[in-house]
Each structure stands twice: as C-alpha cells, then as structure tokens.
Amino acid sequence: MQAIKLDAKPRTPGKGPARAARREKEVPCILYGHTMESLPFQVVELDMRPLIYTDEFHRVEITVGGETYDCILKKVDYHPVSDRPIHADFQMLQAGEMITLTVPLQIVGLSLGQRNGGSPVARQNELSVTCLPKDIPDHFQIDVTDLDIGDSIHLSDLADDKYEFDLPLDATLFFVQAAREEEVEEVDELDEAGDVPEVGDEEEEDESDD
Predict the structure, then answer these.
(1) Secondary structure of the chain in HEC code, one letter for each residue
(2) Which domain holds residue 67?
(3) Which pTM value belongs to this model?
C-alpha cells in the first residue's frame, strides 16, 4: 500500500485557532496514539482531497515539526452546509500492534443473475476489520460475475487469518434476487382471473342502479 504524504503545520489547540485555520482553507487535525501525546496540527484542505474523496483506504505519512508519523485517518467531520472538511482525527500506527479500521468493499462484474433479469442487492459497502499495520488492505473486493439468481457471497468468502471482522462469517455481503416484475405479473394474472376486483367496479354498479 502506497502512503499519502501530508506536510502539516503545528497548531495551538482551541476553537479560536481552529477557526483561524479554516479561514486560511486549512483543516484542524489531531494525531493520537498509545505511545505519544496528542499532537494538534493543520493541513491544507486541498491536500486532504486524495485522502477523503476516494474509494480506497490509505496509510498516511504526516510530517509536522520535522517529524514524520505513520498513521491512518480515523474520522473526518464535515460542515453541514458546505460539506467541507472541518476537522480530522488521525491514529498513529505501531508495528506489531493490531488496529481496527473501516475498509471499502468493492463489487466488480455484472452478475449472471442480472443478465438473466435479476436484481443485485449489496448489503455492505465497507467492512470493519482488525489487523496488523503491515496487513492493512486498500480495499476488499468481490467478483459477482458468476452469481445467478438466488446466489450470494458471504463474509466467509473473504476470510483470511490476517483479518478479524466485526461481522459473523456467515453474514451476506451480496446476493441476486428475482426481479420484482415477476411479482407484478402474478398480480396481473389474478386480475385476469377475477380474484382481484378492478378499482371502480363497485362505483360503476352503483351508478347503473340509479
């Protein structure tokens, strides 16, 4: 996994300095870890874009005050109106120490079931996983090309000794269901058989009695 490198500036904690950073189009951030004191800093907002507007997970190398830290992005807060990032939390990585993170789940391929008229159902678009820093994946990927109507993919299909998931291994990630049009056709057939009255039938009978 290639790390995204960020050049940062130290910042003074507090609401005033944070607001000042945002006025300068910079994002107030905090870096924390088990073996270090929390480190407040700020990063140019544009430099954050490759990290937050992506469907891949990235390690991050942050350089601040002449020191470089290997870390991951844990959380981003966004402005409720502009949707711009207004704060970010980073967590320090320690070799040999397990870490829990959320990794995107990518679905590739057009399933056989979809080609046969079925509808795809994706239950997850990301997975929470615990692993060592050296095993952090960019993403998880499932190929659904061979799935027919009624077929599914479970978390067990991604199982690997390197990873611990917060979901049970029998959790369904993706399946192909029969198209809803089949249900509509069944109702239409009942209509034709007279089992389902047409809307307005009773009103027409009342009018004819007058």
Answers:
(1) CCCEEEECEECCCCHHHHHHHHHCCEEEEEEEECCEEEEEEEEEHHHHHHHHCCCCCCEEEEEECCEEEEEEEEEEEECCCCCCEEEEEEEECCCCCCEEEEEEEEEECCCHHHHCCCEEEECCCEEEEEECHHHCCCCEEEECCCCCCCCEEEHHHHCCCCCEECCCCCCEEEEEECCCHHHHHHHHHHHHCCCCCCCCHHHHHHHHHC
(2) 4-94
(3) 0.77
Contact 57, 126 (CB under 8 A): no
For residue 152, the domain's CATH number is 2.170.120.20
Distances, alpha carbon 89 to alpha carbons 53, 72, 77, in Å: 16, 9, 9
Sorting pLDDT into bands at 50, 70 and 90, what band is 34?
confident
Q: Look at residue 197 and tell me if it is in a domain.
A: no
Give per-residue pLDDT as tens, 98-151: 999 999 999 999 999 999 999 999 999 999 999 999 999 999 999 999 999 999
Other C-beta atoms lying within 10 Å of the C-beta of residue 195: 9
Residues 89 and 108 in one domain: no
Q: Decide if 150 is inside a domain.
A: yes
Specify whether the CB–CB gap between 193 and 187 falls below 8 A: no
Number of domains in the chain: 2
105/89 same-domain check: no
